[in-house]
Design goal:
This protein is 43% helix and 13% strand. The protein is α/β, with parallel strands linked by helices. The structure holds beta-D-glucopyranose (BGC).
Length: 513
């Protein structure tokens, strides 16, 4: 049950989900600020990221809880419009830069490695107004932003993620539209976006590679979030492989395969299907040789976010495969289903099949030849804010077991694991009603009090012993409950900070009035 020496444990968050301070200083507006202010009812509980965990002010508390957990690293993201208020490099925000400097320095002071994501769903509104991820010019705009961020922090940040979950940004958004910016366009949207995201990632990777890698010995990659796609019956195996190429390969082959470019099978299927639909060209835009070369090989590790699995079967004769959040259901005439045996969760999208992560890793290793894999997200969402969260403990433990098996039985090179999330936060369309935190956050408390759940105690023990062979917190829960019943008591040393934050709130209120 021991993890290999050097295996690292962390937890993750993202800027819009935790920072709040949506208009602090000269921060520019992003798509979430804009869409939610226009129509708050798009969010299930009517909340927003305006304040959320208030990490813009309470970052010291975040670092403290990361330290209390014994994390080796903390993965957070940078808000594009906090650094570049217009979205473009004509203006750099001094306050924005200062905020992340403080956070990074404090993490390093406590011995926690910062892992920084450049982009986690919070596109500048200015860029969305110009077509967002479907405008090919975004490739250079993202590169400008990346260049600025590297210049500020590359001396201290050694692990980078360029873009979080392109499959969500492109397929999910343009097919289902159930995230912001809520624009659906199933024919070209997912595919143009797919190409632009990969190109943007590649440019940022090359800027880092050419200017900083040697000097600082850092690494940088893109975070993919494959859903493990499993054949429902043996006869669906070939179809499932096509589905994996569609859902995972389309976002990974151009970077990780020896040949570069789209998965050839998918390129062919898309060309034929587009023709059938009357398009005089393929809906999957091609790469020129130069573009292929630009993207190919732009990785230093594989950043894997994993939550769940689906079964694949071919659609019945009278069945419309429908439009699913991974593109390809119509083109491949397939249906994705949840196995009724897999336990359901409060988050409809996540059903629990821990073996899926091991199979996904095996698939990636077979296709891309023994990658160094960092699990950059894995976690469970619950509607209940009960701090005795045994469900989350089991979810994390069962996935870690499969990761150990992947390492020990399959020879996978997995270098670390990240829980999503360090604390409850703004869970996109669910707002504050869906909780992923190792720490509960009291959103009605002015200081957004953070309280460790049983899962936090469990995870801290796993980290401390570097092993899964740790007692279930139920053995100690009474002791923990007593200690933490009233939340993390604010330490005297933090009183000054508390006063400052309160003062800042009062001054803001007065100014707004
Ligand atoms: C995203 C997070 C999100 C989590 C749970 C991941 O795909 O990166 O931002 O909160 O899923 O939905």
């Amino acid at each position: 049950m021991k993890f290999p020496p050097g295996f690292k444990f962390g937890a993750a968050t993202s800027a819009y989900q935790i920072e709040g301070a949506w208009n602090a200083s000269d921060k520019g507006r992003n798509i979430w600020d804009s869409m939610i202010h226009k129509n708050p009812s798009i969010i299930e509980d009517g909340t927003s990221g305006d304040v959320t965990c208030d990490s813009y002010h309470l970052w010291r508390e975040d670092v403290q809880i990361a330290h209390d957990l014994g994390l080796h690293f903390y993965r957070f993201s940078i808000s594009w419009t906090r650094i570049l208020p217009t979205g473009f490099p004509n203006k750099i925000s001094k306050d924005g830069v200062r905020y992340y400097n403080k956070l990074i320095d404090e993490l390093l002071k406590k011995g926690i490695e910062p892992i920084v994501t450049l982009y986690h769903f919070d596109l500048p509104l200015s860029i969305q107004n110009l077509g967002g991820w479907t405008n090919p010019l975004i490739v250079d705009w993202f590169a400008d932003y990346a260049r600025t961020v590297f210049l500020m922090y590359a001396d201290r940040v050694k692990t980078w993620v360029t873009i979080n979950e392109p499959m969500i940004i492109c397929d999910f958004n343009y097919n289902v539209g159930n995230l912001v910016p809520q624009i659906t366009e199933e024919f070209l949207g997912p595919f143009i976006c797919n190409k632009n995201v990969l190109m943007a990632h590649a440019k940022a990777w090359r800027i880092y590679d050419e200017n900083y890698k040697e000097k600082y010995q850092g690494k940088i990659s893109i975070a993919n979030n494959p859903i493990w796609l499993e054949a429902q019956t043996e006869k669906d195996e070939e179809l499932s492989e096509r589905a994996r190429e569609f859902g995972v390969g389309r976002y990974s082959d151009p970077i990780y395969s020896k040949e570069g470019g789209w998965p050839p099978t998918i390129e062919k299927i898309m060309a034929e299907y587009s023709k059938k639909q009357g398009f005089p060209y393929s809906r999957l835009p091609s790469f020129t040789d130069e573009e292929k070369k630009l993207v190919q090989g732009t990785y230093d590790y594989f950043s894997l976010n994993h939550y769940t699995s689906r079964l694949v079967r071919s659609a019945r004769a009278d069945e419309d495969p429908g439009l699913w959040y991974i593109s390809g259901s119509r083109e491949l005439n397939l249906v994705l289903e949840k196995d009724p045996q897999w336990p359901k969760t409060d988050f409809v999208y996540i059903v629990i099949q821990p073996e899926g992560i091991r199979r996904q890793i095996a698939w990636l290793n077979k296709r891309y030849h023994n990658l160094s894999i960092l699990i950059t997200e894995n976690g469970l969402g619950t509607r209940s804010s009960d701090n005795y969260d045994t469900g989350r403990i089991h979810y994390i433990r069962d996935h870690l077991k499969q990761i150990l098996l992947a390492i020990k039985e399959d020879g996978a090179n997995i270098v670390g694991y990240t829980v999503w999330s360090l604390m409850d936060n703004f869970e996109w369309m669910f707002g504050q009603s869906m909780k992923f935190g190792l720490y509960d956050v009291d959103f009605s408390h002015p200081l957004r009090r953070r309280t460790p759940r049983a899962s936090a105690h469990f995870y801290r023990n796993v980290i401390k012993h570097h092993s899964l062979d740790v007692p279930h917190p139920s053995h100690h829960w009474d002791k923990y409950r007593k200690t933490y019943n009233n939340g993390v008591t604010i330490k005297y040393s933090n009183c000054f900070l508390v006063l400052l934050v309160l003062l800042e709130h009062i001054i803001c209120k007065l100014l707004l009035n």
